[in-house]
Structure formats: structure tokens, C-alpha cells
Design brief:
Largest sheet of chain B: 8 strands, antiparallel
Number of helices of chain A: 0
Structural class of chain B: alpha+beta
Number of strands of chain A: 16
Helix content of chain B: 25-40%
Largest interface: A-B, 60 and 57 residues
Order of helices and strands of chain A: EEEEEEEEEEEEEEEE
Shape of chain B: globular
Helix content of chain A: under 10%
Oligomer: heterodimer
Shape of chain A: elongated
Radius of gyration of chain A: 21 Å
Largest sheet of chain A: 8 strands, antiparallel
Distance between the termini of chain B: 40 Å
């Protein structure tokens, strides 16, 4: 069998990164003892065969995220290339605001480039029949907005990026 | 029999009722809010009527909207399901006023059982045991202490005027009762403007065991045995089963008789559930009335599994004036049934409700496996309604066999696109204390730490391998555009949230 790598995928689960090499009929996960055989019985499912034993893994794609169901366990795997479009977390002068719970964006009160003072309302969300104003944690300038009025948003997903004010 | 029944509900229970209507030869009418346009329950019925915007208050909870839909569709009967308007006496009254047969008890009975005080009094009059409690005439600390002593410790001191945990204090013995009473009084005064205290015996590690009853209009009342619903979190049930591991045959008979007496005492009609708290096990156990639910319950399939009856079908017959199809002696439980409620919740994040789209959704099938749901692949799970995705009900010859069947079914039930309590349910079923039958209402609180998940490396590797195989091309070479082109988001029906 030719050891021809069809593709290499860099995948992340929480903070751990894994390299996975897919060959013609086998797949090798860095750190796993031996490669698995694979097949594709249908669009939603991948057969992973290890030591002759088959497990059907259901997979779904949701933008950068992949969901996988393995025998009752659920994994959320990010496949975005490391570094690109990473809005989450500590870029030096930026801060992202996100919803604390699944909610609907009722109002986007600012626009990119607008300067805000601490506690200014930048977004209004609605969840469980309550309105939830999202306020600027400090003075700054709105760098980017990643949602629109009417969007249903998940907790933790960045909705608005706040930059440091120019003169400070 | 009614000709055309309007289902005043949504989701899985609406699908369930539509199914019973089909079997009974009754036309069904579904109602749907804007958020539920095209939803499975709207398509499951013969007809469907739009009743308003997404918000429950403006649609499923709107009496005028529901009655308007009944008029518009020419319905002659209404089934309220559970939740929403099912225990709203004014709604039952309004249906009667509009000439609609209401599938449930009379409005006056709904009203009476809706008041905790009135319900307790009715039970006491019927000789049904209630949780020992008293409103001390002497409301000073000394008077409260005397009441506690007469009831027997431990006790819980509660605010007469309210609930929600405010103005409640547990006193384990006579030591602190004075202080605790004073604190409860202050809190009650602040929260409800009324510091009147009520003292109740605190039951230790109680089980929540409820009895299903059915009554027709011809004076027949039967019970269909129990469901043990002790596995709950913040009063939300997660797993229900029958029979209850705590009940001996003698206790089952006594509780069944008490439930029937309770139903008779209040002039009950149609399906209802009498909830009890049970302390202890076997013949020595003591049971106390908690409350009566004057409607069909979420977990009714557990009873259907062990008795072999169709409760919703029977509800329609009773509402049409027919006699109950069974006498008490015709009913006997067989085997063991367990229901697991699959919720769009994240147990790792305080069970926060989740919203999203079901990208993969495949129900398990097999002998003794039943799934009741109102969703399908592509369905949007929204924040407007309760986050129940589906009910998995298994039935097997014994409790261990039922547990094994439930676990296997959950492992064959992929749901992807929103976080669910699926993996958590599997861990619950695997828990040694659950398997031993040692469940009580504090179980989840007590064993919370044990139930946190730890993914197995073998599973994780299989997941990574499958995800890599699934990718259309090497992600490090392709950009986001390639991913977007393949995304199922573009294949799915779009949904809009209207405010």
C-alpha cells in the first residue's frame, strides 16, 4: 500500500491540537497507537475500524466547528487553521463581548468606528423573556461587530470587538 | 366521539395527540406560532392554523388565539397537552363556554387542585396522608419551636405566603430553631410582606413517586400504578421509571387506593396524576400527598409501556362520554420501563439551555425502544420554548435489562448541532447508586461530581479520525471559503426570529 498522504488536517479539541493524516483507506491520528481503517457509508457517517472492530462516527459541520458523535460521546472539534480568524481570547489591545446564554440580538446600538464610554450599551439581547443589555466594560472604539439584529447567538461566541481608544 | 380536535400545544406532545386522533378516527388540528411554521407537529395533524408570533405568551398561551383557531377550523374539541394552558381553569371554562369538549377534568376541579391549600384540605378530608405540618397559632419563636417539637425534627420552616425558596429554613434539631424561625420570618416579611410561618416535617431522602389515575363520567376511577421520578434537578425531571424500586406490592396497593380516593373526593374526570413523597422503603415506607396534576404528564409513556394501554386514546374516549375501557382488575404492570428526557442543555455549564440547529438527528429503533419527539434533522431549537428535544422510553423484562436497553439506545441516538444532556444521561444510567435503585430527590445534587464527564482517549481518537476523513480537502491549504461551500447551513431551511 502506497503511503500517500491524501490530506493532513490540524484539529483542536479545547486547548489540545492534533495532527491527523488521511491516507487512501487508512487514517492516522498523531499519538494514537496504530492507524485506523476508514470508510464512508453515507454523507453523515464515517466508519472507523480499529483492530477489526467498527465504530460508526456521525459528523456534522457548523462553520469552523465539527461535531462528532462516537458511541454516545460528543466531541466538538475546531478545524480552522491555527491563527486565522481567531477572534476568541487575548489579542493584545482587543476585547470581545459575547452573550452569557443563548439569546436573540434585539438591537445593535453602535457601529464599527464608534467611540463608546464605559457602561454604554452596545448591544441588547433577549432571552427567556428578559432583556439583557450588553455594556462596554471600559471606554474604547468599536472595532468590529459579528452579529445582526434578529440573530440567535450562542454563549461565548464573540459578538462585538472593542479596541483601545486612540488617545489614552 | 368528537369530529375534529384542536391540539392546543406544540412539539412532541402535539405529535403524540395527533397520532391518537388518527387511531380514533378523529380529525386533528394543529396550531403553530411563527417560530414553528413548518415544524413536524404542524405537519402531523390533518389541519394547521397559525396563531401568532414566536413568543409563547402571544401564541400557545393566548386563550383568544387558541379559541380563534378552534372557531376558524370548526373544531368541536380541544386537548391542552401539558404545560401552557393545560392547568388553566379559565381556559377550560372558556372552552366549555365556546361549546368545545375539553379533554381533561372540569374547570372547577382544575381550580381547586391548583391551590396547594385547597388541595391539601381535600386530601385530608379524603383520608389521604399529607406531609405533617402546622401553622402555629403562636407565631413567636417559642410557638414555632413548640410546633416543631410536636411534629418531630427535622423540620422545614416555610413562609405561609409564598414560595420559591424564600423564607425557608431547615432546622435539624431544637438548638437553632429560634434563630432560624426569626431569620425565616424576616425573609418572608421582606419578600411577601407577610411573616406568617408554617412548619412542616422535613422528609429525609424522599422519593418522588406518582400514581397515574383515570376517571370517566360514569363513576369509574382506576389507578395505573406508579412512576418513580426521583432523578430530577431543580424540580425538573430527567429520568422516570416504573415500577419504583422502593415500592412493595402492599405499598403499591395502598398508594393506588389513596390516589383513587383522592380523585373520587374531588370529582375528578379524565387523566390525572397524584404526586407523593415516599420516605423509607418496602412495607415500612411512609407516603405523603404532595400535589395533584390535573392533566396528562410528560412521562405518561412510562405507564403506557408497563400497562400496555394508550392513555391519550383513553382520554379522547372519556372526553367523548364513553366509559373507561378497563376495570382495575384488568390492569397489571409487566416488566420495567424507563424514560430518559433528552434536553438541549449543557450539563458542564450549569445545564444552561442551548439553541441551534439539529445537524444530525437519528432516533434509535428496536424492540422495547420508543422515541417521542417533535423534531427532525434540520429543526431549529430555539429559546422560546422549553428545551426538550425528545423522550426516549425503553421497556424490558427487568430493571437491569431496561437500564442496559436505555444505555444502548442512547449510544445509538446521535444528536449533533446543539449540546445535549445525552452523554450525561448515559453516565446517570451507569452510576452505581442508580443501578442499585438508591435514588431520591437529592440524588443529582449528591452525586453531581461523579456525573461530570471525562472523554475516553479511544473515543476522542475515533472522533478526530472521522472529522479528518469528513473534510473535503486539507484544511491547512484551503481557506474558509471551501468550508463554507460544504457547510450544511446552506442546505437547511432558514428560520427567522421575530420579536
Amino acid at each position: 500500500m502506497e503511503n500517500h498522504v491524501v490530506k493532513r488536517v490540524i484539529a483542536r479539541i479545547d486547548d489540545e491540537t492534533f495532527e491527523v493524516d488521511v491516507f487512501d483507506g487508512t487514517v492516522s491520528v498523531a499519538g494514537a497507537a496504530a492507524p485506523f481503517a476508514w470508510d464512508r457509508p453515507e454523507a453523515d457517517a464515517v466508519g472507523i475500524i480499529s483492530d477489526g472492530r467498527r465504530r460508526t462516527v456521525f459528523v456534522a459541520a457548523d462553520r469552523d466547528r465539527r461535531w462528532a458523535f462516537v458511541d454516545g460521546a460528543v466531541f466538538e472539534v475546531d478545524v480552522a487553521p491555527a491563527g486565522a480568524r481567531r477572534r476568541l481570547g487575548s489579542r493584545h489591545h482587543h476585547e470581545s463581548l459575547s452573550a452569557p446564554m443563548p439569546a436573540t440580538v434585539v438591537k445593535v446600538a453602535v457601529a464599527p468606528g464608534v467611540a463608546v464610554a464605559r457602561d454604554d450599551i452596545v448591544l441588547i439581547l433577549e432571552a427567556m423573556k428578559m432583556e439583557l443589555p450588553i455594556r462596554a466594560p471600559r471606554a474604547g472604539v468599536v472595532e468590529a461587530i459579528h452579529c445582526r439584529e434578529g440573530d440567535l447567538v450562542q454563549p461565548g461566541v464573540p459578538l462585538l470587538d472593542l479596541d483601545e481608544p486612540d488617545a489614552e | 366521539m368528537m369530529k375534529r380536535l384542536l391540539i392546543a400545544n406544540r412539539g412532541e406532545i402535539a405529535v403524540r395527540i395527533a397520532r391518537a386522533c388518527r387511531e380514533a378516527g378523529v380529525e386533528s388540528v394543529a396550531v403553530y406560532s411563527e417560530a414553528d411554521r413548518g415544524a413536524p407537529h404542524a405537519r402531523a395533524a390533518d389541519r394547521a392554523v397559525a396563531i401568532g408570533p414566536a413568543s409563547a405568551a402571544a401564541s400557545y398561551l393566548s386563550i383568544p388565539a387558541i379559541l380563534g383557531a378552534a372557531r376558524e377550523s370548526g373544531a368541536d374539541a380541544v386537548h391542552p397537552g401539558y404545560g401552557f394552558l393545560s392547568e388553566n381553569a379559565a381556559f377550560a371554562e372558556a372552552c366549555a363556554g365556546a361549546g368545545l369538549a375539553f379533554v381533561g377534568p372540569p374547570a372547577a376541579v382544575i381550580e381547586r387542585m391548583g391551590s396547594k391549600i385547597a388541595a391539601r384540605e381535600a386530601m385530608q378530608a379524603a383520608g389521604v396522608p399529607v406531609v405533617p405540618g402546622v401553622t402555629p397559632r403562636d407565631q413567636h419563636d417559642a410557638g414555632v419551636a413548640a410546633a416543631a417539637a410536636s411534629l418531630g425534627y427535622p423540620v422545614i420552616v416555610k413562609a405561609s405566603a409564598g414560595g420559591g425558596g424564600k423564607g425557608m429554613r431547615v432546622a435539624r434539631d431544637a438548638e437553632d430553631i429560634g434563630e432560624l424561625a426569626a431569620a425565616a420570618r424576616r425573609e418572608a416579611e421582606a419578600a411577601f410582606g407577610d411573616g406568617t410561618l408554617y412548619v412542616e416535617r422535613l422528609l429525609e431522602r424522599p422519593r418522588h413517586v406518582e400514581i397515574q389515575v383515570m376517571a370517566d363520567r360514569h363513576g369509574r376511577v382506576v389507578h395505573l400504578f406508579e412512576r418513580d421520578c426521583s432523578v430530577q434537578r431543580r424540580h425538573q425531571k430527567i429520568i422516570e421509571e416504573s415500577p419504583s424500586p422502593a415500592l412493595s406490592p402492599a405499598l403499591r396497593d395502598r398508594m393506588g387506593a389513596a390516589a383513587v380516593a383522592a380523585a373520587r373526593a374531588v370529582g375528578y374526570e379524565n387523566a390525572g396524576t397524584v404526586e407523593f413523597l415516599v420516605e423509607g422503603e418496602g412495607d415500612e415506607a411512609r407516603f405523603y400527598f404532595l400535589e395533584m396534576n390535573t392533566r396528562l404528564q410528560v412521562e405518561h409513556p412510562v405507564t403506557e409501556a408497563v400497562t400496555g394501554v394508550d392513555l391519550v386514546r383513553a382520554q379522547l374516549a372519556v372526553a367523548a362520554g364513553e366509559p373507561l375501557p378497563w376495570r382495575q382488575e384488568d390492569l397489571a404492570p409487566r416488566g420495567h420501563a424507563i424514560e430518559c428526557r433528552l434536553y438541549a442543555e449543557d450539563p458542564a455549564a450549569g445545564f444552561l439551555p442551548q439553541a441551534g440547529t439539529l445537524l444530525v438527528y437519528r432516533e434509535p429503533v428496536g424492540p422495547g425502544v420508543r422515541v417521542d419527539s417533535g423534531v427532525e434533522r434540520g429543526s431549529a431549537i430555539s429559546v422560546h420554548y422549553d428545551p426538550l428535544i425528545a423522550k426516549l422510553i425503553v421497556h424490558a423484562e427487568s430493571r437491569p435489562a431496561a437500564i442496559a436497553r436505555a444505555e444502548a439506545a442512547l449510544r445509538a441516538f446521535p444528536v449533533l448541532g446543539v449540546r445535549t444532556n445525552g452523554p450525561y444521561l448515559i453516565r446517570l444510567l451507569q452510576h452505581a447508586e442508580f443501578r442499585r435503585g438508591g435514588i431520591h430527590t437529592g440524588f443529582i445534587g449528591e452525586h453531581g461530581a461523579d456525573l461530570a464527564g471525562c472523554p475516553a482517549a479511544a473515543d476522542r481518537d475515533a472522533a478526530l479520525a472521522a472529522v479528518a476523513v469528513f473534510e473535503p480537502e486539507a484544511v491547512s491549504a484551503a481557506g474558509p471559503a471551501a468550508l463554507a461551500a460544504r457547510s450544511p447551513w446552506t442546505d437547511l431551511r432558514g428560520w427567522r426570529i421575530t420579536s
